[in-house]
Each structure stands twice: as structure tokens, then as C-alpha cells.
Design brief:
The chain is α/β, with parallel strands linked by helices. Helices cover 28% and strands 13% of the residues. It folds into 2 domains: 131 residues, 3-Layer(aba) Sandwich (Rossmann fold), CATH 3.40.50; 151 residues, Rossmann fold. The strands form 2 sheets. A 6-stranded parallel β-sheet has the order 8-7-6-9-10-11, with helices on both faces.
Length: 356
């Protein structure tokens, strides 16, 4: 999971026809070069977050692409997400942008005239409102925030599902958007472990990490049934991956620690038999590639970040009060999910086929 609450959005300006530039005394139509040329209009989208955030924003990106077919669509997002950005088919150019702790970047390396349209898909403001406003876009689409009263966008609802949230934002500006439009094409890179059960014990914060001993028990049960089990982890999760591999007695060939390149990770997930993980980016990647998945939720419920309602995707959640998605200890809601819960989900119709 990649929480967007507390992030930022941008000023909104609906309507058609000529749009007044925010620079005093100047006026032009969208896409018209201020020097009188015919440069292609540019649409800037800010979503400088992680893999799961990007994938949850794919329906909105595609909606913007359809609504502005003549614009150059520029996405401000981390450079390492380039393979997934390209796979969306919606983005013309990636503008590298990120900040420590998933904060709003201080600046954007934007050159040339102001954007004709800027769209804040980063959060609810106000820092990202102001970041985009400094570029003086002709039109800025974002959720409303009391600290940026010049933004006349729709209200922000904290309990809303992330995919629905951004589609609702665009619909408020007359842009049709379908939250279900999130599939990615199959990668051209072959899978390093076709048909394997992929276990991913890590997440963006300890509060979203199910105990590694329980992952090891699931791995053992799957191997006993004849399934190949591989384990993956991020660049800073080498120790966690190594511990799971040792507990589960996995061969070195089935351990993908240290952060697979994103194209290889996509290929692994697309060709997997099932993905078992917490609420983190790889779960969204499984959804994007229609790979069966079992996702363990806590401290945030699946109603905000869960997969679409489909038999191949199982979201495990024991209701309780919301916790801290960035906390330093495993959330109690996640601890309430037992090994038997995960194995039962794997046995559900449509999830994991029998081993050959």
C-alpha cells in the first residue's frame, strides 16, 4: 500500500474555450506557444510516489490521455518506474521526481512554457498544489483544500478507494474515467520462474509486514504440495528475504532479493501462479497482470487499497480500528491474519491451480 493521505493536489479550473494564463496581463489559448508558434500543448501530471501508487493511478492517466489526445502527457514520478510508465500506454515522457519519505518534491525540473494543463494526482494538498501552481499552468486540476482556497476542485474523502478517488477527481472536471481500466500488457521479458508461487514479505513500513515466520510456514505448505516457491524483496530488504529463504529452506535459485529490476519483477509477477504479499506495490502489479493474488491487509483496510472484486484476487482483513500505515511495528490487524487464513485463500477457486 502507498498511502496518499497527507500529500497534495492542485488548483482546479474547469470550463472550455480560452483559458486565462495565471501570469498577469497575458492571455492565450491552451497549446498556443506564447511566442506565436504552434507547439504541441503539454499536460503535466504529478504522482511522485511508489509503484503501487502509480498502478492505482493508471485509470486516471489513461482517462487524461483519451481526453487530451493532442497533448504531450508528462508524468512527474520516480525514474525507476519507467518500465511501468511505458507499459501504461498513456505517458509520452517521464519527468523524474521524488522526495524522501514519499513527501512532495521541492521542485520539478520543468523547462519551457508553463503547462497547458497540470493535474495533481499526488494527494490532497496543499504542498503539491503550490508546487504545480509555481509553474503557472493555464489550468490546474486538483482536490480542494482549505489552505489553498484558489483551488475549486471537488472535496477529498479520506475513506475512498484510491483508484476511485482519482477517477472522481477527473469526472468533476468533465473527464470520463473508469477505475477498472488498470490492466497492463504482458512484459516482453521472460519470467525467471514461470508458474511459481511468489512470496513477498516486505512492505514500505514494518506495520504492513506480516511475520516472516508465517510466510515461511506458507512456503513450506506450498512446497509440500509440489509448488515451486520463490521469494522477492526490495533493494533494502535483503536480510528479510534471506531470513525467509533460510526458514523455508529455499534453494538460492528461488531467492530474488536485493530488488529485481522492475522489468524482471513485472515478468516474474505476470508469469506467476500466485502472488502472496502484504499491502504493497507487488500486489498492485499482480492485479495489473491478472495474476492470482492473496493480499494481507493491515493497518489499512482493502476498501481503500484492495484489489478489484474478482475470484482470482483474495484480500484478507480482520476488521478493527485503523492503524498507522507507516508504523514501526506490525499492526495488530495484520497479526490477526493466521497461516490457515492464507492457506484457505490459496485453496479458494480461481486462485492457485494444483501443482503439475
Amino acid at each position: 500500500m502507498n498511502a496518499a493521505t497527507g500529500r497534495s493536489s492542485g488548483p482546479a479550473d474547469a470550463g472550455s474555450g480560452p483559458v486565462r494564463d495565471r501570469r498577469p496581463g497575458q492571455e492565450r489559448r491552451p497549446g498556443q506557444d506564447p511566442a506565436g508558434g504552434g507547439a504541441r500543448p503539454r499536460l503535466l501530471v504529478l504522482r511522485a510516489l511508489g509503484l503501487g501508487d502509480l498502478l492505482a493511478g493508471v485509470p486516471a492517466l489513461r482517462a487524461l490521455r483519451r481526453a487530451h489526445p493532442g497533448h504531450e502527457l508528462v508524468l512527474a514520478t520516480p525514474a525507476e518506474l519507467a518500465p511501468v510508465v511505458a507499459a501504461t500506454g498513456a505517458v509520452d515522457r517521464l519527468l523524474p521526481a521524488s522526495a524522501p519519505g514519499r513527501a512532495v518534491p521541492r521542485t520539478l525540473d520543468w523547462t519551457g512554457p508553463p503547462p497547458d494543463v497540470a493535474v495533481d494526482l499526488h494527494g490532497n494538498g496543499p504542498p503539491s498544489h503550490r508546487l504545480l501552481a509555481r509553474l503557472r499552468p493555464l489550468k490546474l486540476l486538483a482536490f480542494a483544500h482549505p489552505e489553498t482556497p484558489e483551488v475549486d476542485g471537488p472535496p477529498w474523502y479520506a475513506e475512498e478507494h484510491e483508484r476511485d478517488r482519482w477517477c472522481r477527481l477527473l469526472r468533476a472536471y468533465g473527464i470520463d474515467a473508469d477505475p477498472a481500466d488498470l490492466r497492463l500488457p504482458r512484459p516482453g521479458t521472460p519470467s525467471p520462474a514461470p508458474g511459481a508461487a511468489v512470496l513477498h514479505p516486505g512492505a514500505g513500513a514494518p506495520s504492513r509486514c506480516w511475520p516472516v515466520e508465517r510466510f515461511a510456514a506458507v512456503a513450506g505448505a506450498l512446497r509440500a504440495r509440489g509448488h515451486r516457491v520463490v521469494v522477492t524483496g526490495g533493494a533494502d530488504e535483503g536480510d528479510l528475504v534471506a531470513r525467509l529463504a533460510k526458514l523455508a529452506r529455499l534453494p538460492d535459485t528461488d531467492v530474488f532479493g536485493g530488488g529485481l529490476p522492475l522489468d524482471r519483477l513485472s515478468a516474474l509477477v505476470a508469469g506467476a501462479g500466485v502472488v502472496v504479499s502484504g499491502d504493497t506495490g507487488i500486489a498492485h502489479l499482480a492485479v495489473a497482470h491478472a495474476t492470482p493474488s492473496v493480499t494481507l491487509f493491515g493497518p489499512v483496510p482493502p476498501s481503500r487499497w484492495g484489489p478489484p472484486d474478482h475470484p482470482r484476487h483474495r484480500a484478507l482483513w480482520h476488521p478493527g480500528p485503523d492503524g498507522d500505515p507507516h508504523g514501526q511495528a506490525t499492526d495488530p490487524a495484520l497479526l490477526r491474519i493466521g497461516i490457515g487464513d492464507v492457506l484457505a485463500a490459496l485453496d479458494a477457486p480461481g486462485v492457485l491451480e494444483e501443482a503439475p
